[in-house]
Amino acid sequence: MNIAEIKDLIPHRYPFLMVDRVEELSPGQSIVAIKNVTVNEPFFQGHFPEYPVMPGVLILEAIAQAGALLMLNEAEDPSSSIPLFAGIDKARFRRPVVPGDQLRIEVSVLRQRGLSCKLAGKAWVGDELASEAEIMAVLAPKP
After folding, report:
1. CATH code for the domain in which residue 110 is found
2. Which of 66, 77, 102, 141 has an alpha carbon 20 to 30 Å from 9's alpha carbon atom?
3. Could you tell me the residue range of the domain that residue 20 belongs to?
4. For the chain (length 143 residues), average pLDDT per consecutive 10?
């Protein structure tokens, strides 16, 4: 899935779109997505100017957006729904993510009931685990 296809599914846009490409998609099961981390990301201006580190909350957001792509890919009418966080559990940060890194985001479905889903997500830089979390999400009707 390229960036145009991603933008067709999820409502996020620059500077908050955290998925650049989808490499693998097993409908209803799992997704592997890529986020290229560049020095000109707006958050690096203040986090931190002398030692730029991607904020952990944005790594979790990248995991959530990959999960939203997985969920919306299965939706009957993706344009009528908006993905929302319902919860985050077991979030851990294992290594800093810095400019030049490429995040490989792996998300799998743990449980799905109707429009809600519990997902397990991991963000890797090379073969190093950068972050992991369980995310609960819901597809809500667009207002």
Report:
1. 3.10.129.10
2. 102
3. 3-141
4. 96 96 97 97 95 98 98 91 96 98 98 95 98 97 90
